[in-house]
Structure formats: C-alpha cells, structure tokens
Amino acid sequence: MQWTNLSEQNVYQNPWFRVNLADVELPDGSHLDHFVIRLRPVAAATVVNEANEVLLLWRHRFITDSWGWELAAGVVEDGEDIAAAAAREMEEETGWRPGELRPLLTVEPSNGLTDARHHLYWSDEAHWTGQPQDAFESSRREWIPLKVVPDMIARGEVPAANMAAALLMLHHLRLG
Q1: Where are the domains of the chain?
Q2: Distance CA 146, CA 50 (A)
Q3: Whole-angstrom Cα distance, residue 20 to residue 154?
Q4: Per residue in 78-132, pLDDT tens?
Q5: Domain named Nudix hydrolase: which ranges (predicted)?
Q6: Which of 8, 60, 101, 166 is most exposed, with the fewest beta carbons within 10 Å of its own?
Q7: pLDDT single digits (tens) 117-154
Q8: Range 42-175 has CATH code 3.90.79.10
C-alpha cells in the first residue's frame, strides 16, 4: 500500500523551509494533492556527566505557547557535518563544548507532513567555555538527574516528542 509522489511544485520558500504541492498517486490509482513541508536537518546534543545528570535548557516555545525542557538544537547549515552542527548548537546555547559526540537516535517528528529529520547526539564529557552566545534561546540551563527524566516526561515537562524520545533513550542507555 505505497503512495507514490509523482511530482512536486514549489508554493513558498524561505531560508528555513519550502512548502510544495505534491501530486500523489494512491495504491488504487487515484490521485490527490498533498502539501509537503521540506525542512533542513536539525541537530541536537547534550552531555551526561559522571553523576548521571543531563544538561538541559528550559525554554518557551511561542508557537505552542508552552514551556519545557529541551536539548540544545538547531538547523544544520549547508555543507555542515551533522555532528559538528550538534556540537556547535550545544556550545552556542549552553556555553558547554561537548567531547566526542555519539549518535543517540534520528527521528522524523511529523513525517505525514514534513521531511524533517532530527539527529540527536550525546557525550559523556563537556568543557565550559563561557556564557552561551545564544542565551536568548532559553531561560536557564540546568543539570537534571537522569533518573527523574521519565517522571518529567509523564508530567509534560518535556513536551517536544523528539526531546522526550532522546531523553528516554539516554535514560535507558545510562541507567538501564
């Protein structure tokens, strides 16, 4: 039961995304018009210290008017290595430069509408480089005990699905 994208026409674009209208053929041979949002990849990173605390940002998202804990994240620049982008974003948003980053997971947060891929990484070491360049991205940055992550997610304190998935994976990897 595969849908086939026969063609796409650009409807709108800016430096962050493109909106295309696709001509999609369904398995029964019929066609439908389907909007597709094409996005640049997103890279995210965090660090877990020796005390099994994870570095998170507390921030407001104006689109959903919600507050929540997140990993440092941002768009991968053209030609930029994804892991390098994750390290850059972490340092810019937290003031901590991660050590060697390990892939945690890649998720497609809304694959019925967008082609967005979020690549999440982690490290077990980081070095403080100074106040974050992009401090406006969050209200605060804190080391949160990894053991409390599942309860935080259950309480809705990590509203972004990609962040919740990454934190649950880290919890599993580090604490079993």
Answers
A1: 4-39, 42-175
A2: 11
A3: 36
A4: 999 999 999 999 999 999 999 999 999 999 999 999 999 999 999 999 999 999 9
A5: 38-171
A6: 60
A7: 999 999 999 999 999 998 888 999 999 999 999 999 99
A8: yes
